[in-house]
Structure formats: structure tokens, C-alpha cells
Amino acid sequence: LSTTTIHRSRYTRRLMPRSIHGYTRAPIPWHTAGVRIVQITDLHLDLEERTPHGIDVWENARWAVATARDARPDLVVVSGDLALHYGSPELYAALPPLFAGLGCDYLLLPGNHDDRSAFGAAFGRRYALREDTPWLDRQVDAGGVPMLLLDSSAGRLEERQLAWVDAVLTARTAAAARGAGPPGVLVWIHHPVLTGFHRYMDGAYPLQNADAVRAVLTRHRRALSIELFCGHYHCEDSRVDGIRQHTTPSTYMQIDPEPEEFRVLPGGPAIRIVDVDTAGAVETVVVYRDERFD
Q1: Secondary structure class of 30 (helix, strand, coil)
Q2: How many degrees, rounded to 5, is the angle at CA 66 between CA 21 and CA 228?
Q3: CA distances from residue 28 to 35, 37, 104, 201, 246 in whole angstroms, order as listed
Q4: Which helix (H) or strand (E) is 164 found in, with range?
Q5: What is the distance in angstroms between the CA of the first residue and the CA of the last residue of the chain?
Q6: Which end of the chain is least crowded, N or C, by CB within 10 Å?
Q7: What is the per-residue pLDDT across 175-203, written as a single tens digit (0 to 9) for each?
Q8: What whole-number distance in Å separates Cα of residue 290 and Cα of residue 236?
Q9: For the chain, what percentages of helix, strand and coil (3-state, to nearest 5) are there?
Q10: 203-245, pLDDT tens digit by residue?
């Protein structure tokens, strides 16, 4: 199985100062060893409708990029819903200048509002599946950290995708048993696999075969530590059920997880920082724009 390799940056990370690029934001924790990854998700950008619900989504995206850059990551993962309603070649063509501000390698995943065909054409295909498959799944080595990026833009993972995931994790298990790789994998996907924490999104836009995806992932839990990072639900959540799942807030708006009807939560955009140390231990924190210093 082919693997894309992302090499670690060579600089030493530092604590983020209080204000850079005109933004005031929370301090980013120290990190001097291992691999640092920043997750940005659910940007919901549009070339015409630039302020949906009165929210300047492009300004929020610029804040996310500036904050991510200042965290000095080795890699940024943008985990889907780049588009507000429907992805298009024109929208995707406008995004590379924005992402160039990250100052590091970045990987993109499609979400349910993205157009898979236009997305793949715009951002290239360096994927682990064969070129004749429609899905944009891929296997990545990020500075020695094994990662899977899974395409759930259709609202489900198909049987062929699940078989591929199972094969990759089986190979990772065998490698770890030989001492040829770390006993952990980071999984990135737009939709949460573990549900039950957001009444509105569970009812309206869940991953349709979440149980099947969870079954494949948890099949390997005795041999591999699996940390899954997702978005889609527009809120912050972390939970453990066979795997450890972290749901990251949107850069657009947050949605109240309590009521069954749609309701916006107050608060601004956010990103997630994921630090993997040299032993493979994972630490993560969410940084919100609206957090202030005392």
C-alpha cells in the first residue's frame, strides 16, 4: 500500500504571543518534540454569499490560518466542508492563496458540502487507493506518525473503503508487532463515527453507516491505539468507545448539541492543535478566537 510521507519541520516551537496579525487569542502550549498537527474544519466558504447568517466566514478562515501558522505545526489537516453549500471548481481555485498562509504542508479532506470530483481535480490525487476509484482516501506518514484520511463526503463509507481501512490497519498491526512502526494511528474523517452527543446533527446529518465504520476501527483496538479527529457537528467533544474520538468546532459557527432543532451557539471560530510526542502519546487542545487574556 502506497504512503505519502510528510517530513517534520526543523525549527523549535515557541509560546504564541498575545496578538499577531491583528488577532487576540489564547496561548498555544509549548511543544518541542514529536509532531504537531493543526486541524481546521467546516470553513463553509462561498464566492458570492460571503457573510451567511451575518458571519464573515472568510475573515474567520483567515483567523484560522494565521492562528495555525503561529502554532508552527508540521502539518495542517483541513477536514472538510470547505464549501458553504456546494463545492465548485471556481471556489476551490480561490483557496490555494488562503492555504499558502499556513507556511507548512497541508492535507485536505472533502465534507458533505464539497463536490468530490471538483475537489479531487483541484487539489490533486496522491491517494493510496487506485486511480480508478472515486474516493479520496489516503494513507500518510507524518514525521513517523501513521495517519489515515477517510472520504465521507457521500455521508457514508462504502464497503470497498471499509475493506481498504481494514487492510491498512491489519498491516499496521503486523508492523507494530515486529517493532517496525508505532502502535498507534491517527484517523481523520469529516463525520463523527461515535455519535450520541448532538441531538440535531444525529437526527439530520449523521454518518449513515457509523456502526459499520466503528466496527472496523475497533476490531484493531487491542493492537493499535486509534485516535480519530473529525468535524461536521460544529461543536467540541471528546469521547472514548473502543476508539478515542475528538470532534473539532467549526470556523463558521457552532451548533447547540442539546435541542433537536437547529440552534446556533454564541462564540467564534476555533481550531484544534494535536501534539504527538516521540513515544506516540497524543495531547490535544481547542483554541477559540473569542478566548481572552486576563
Answers
A1: coil
A2: 155
A3: 15, 13, 17, 30, 18
A4: helix 159-177
A5: 50
A6: C
A7: 888 887 778 899 999 999 999 999 999 99
A8: 15
A9: 25, 25, 50
A10: 999 999 999 999 999 999 888 999 999 999 999 999 999 999 9
